[in-house]
Write a structure and sequence with these properties.
Strand 8 (154-159) and strand 9 (167-170) form a beta hairpin. This protein has one domain (24-173). By secondary structure, it is of the alpha+beta class. It has helices at residues 3-16, 114-117, 139-148; strands spanning 29-36, 53-64, 70-82, 88-96, 106-109, 118-119, 124-131, 154-159, 167-170, 172-173. The radius of gyration is 18 Å and the shape is elongated. It has three helices and ten strands; from the N terminus they run H-E-E-E-E-E-H-E-E-H-E-E-E. The longest helix is centred in the N-terminal third of the chain and has 14 residues, at 3-16.
Length: 175
């Protein structure tokens, strides 16, 4: 067996044996995705943002008490967007607690800076880490709800043209 194949096998074994606290096999870490489309908004977007799309990846790290009950979580987001008109302004991005076809309140919001909001060439990415639920009093129930039933939650991105949301996708657990 040549050295390259042997090295590849060793690396594959090393990766598969990773039990670090942040590995996907950690019961306190859940990974989610959402495919963001204007047709998923309520009502569906038909104006200049209708050609936009995106993806959202979420890493949720829950905290638990001695009885193993979820007491809260931190949220790490990576969002990629494309197809927006040039010079689009992002006005919001967040998780809402609501199934497909409904409109619901924000439960985890992403704080946006001026560098996050400008999508000058119609595409962009942003990452936000270590975020918490909007209401600390409901942090445990928000985390439990996302953990138990991700499809009952959606992520969307709002623009100045579509202040109620331009692209949206239901959360899907990926681990």
């Amino acid at each position: 067996m040549n050295r390259v194949v042997m090295l590849a096998l060793v690396l594959m074994f090393a990766v598969s044996c990773d039990d670090s606290p942040t590995s996907p096999s950690d019961p306190n870490v859940a990974l989610f995705t959402a495919i963001l489309l204007p047709g998923n908004e309520v009502p569906a977007i038909t104006n200049a943002d209708a050609s936009a799309s995106g993806t959202m990846q979420l890493k949720m790290t829950v905290t638990r008490d001695a009885a193993n009950t979820i007491t809260g979580a931190t949220y790490d987001f990576t969002i990629h967007m494309t197809g927006f008109p040039q010079n689009t302004t992002i006005t919001g991005a967040h998780i809402h607690n609501g199934p497909a076809g409904t409109i619901a309140g924000v439960v985890v919001g992403l704080p946006l800076t001026s560098t996050d909001t400008a999508v000058s060439n119609g595409q962009g990415s942003l990452s936000k880490n270590g975020l918490s639920a909007n209401n600390p009093a409901s942090a445990a129930s928000v985390a439990q709800g996302i953990f138990n039933n991700p499809a009952a939650n959606y992520f969307n991105v709002h623009t100045s043209l579509n202040t109620g949301g331009a692209v949206r996708g239901q959360l899907v657990r990926s681990n």
